[in-house]
Here is the input.
Amino acid sequence: MICKDFETRIPYFLDDKLNKKQAKEFFAHMQTCESCKEELRIQYLIKEGTLRLEDGDSFDLNKELDLKIEKTKKAIKKRTIANMVIYIMEAVAIAAVIFILILVFTSR
Here is the structure.
């Protein structure tokens, strides 16, 4: 991913609209590019800070962004594990069907 692509995805990340593949690419680029990581922080601070200032609440936006990033990473990991479990279950089911078919055809 190039920086321009990363920057166009920032609003989608902030609105929780990245799919699993996009989120993985987003985080991979963010880990290697400090300027994009900073751009993410700036856009988050502008978006959330503006909303919060109107409400008059106190807040720590840097901490909140870090939590949002970690939450999204955990969700990606959970989905990946769930997909692996599904694939394993499918493989076991296919193996069971094949085994049953072998038993049926060899017993004739």
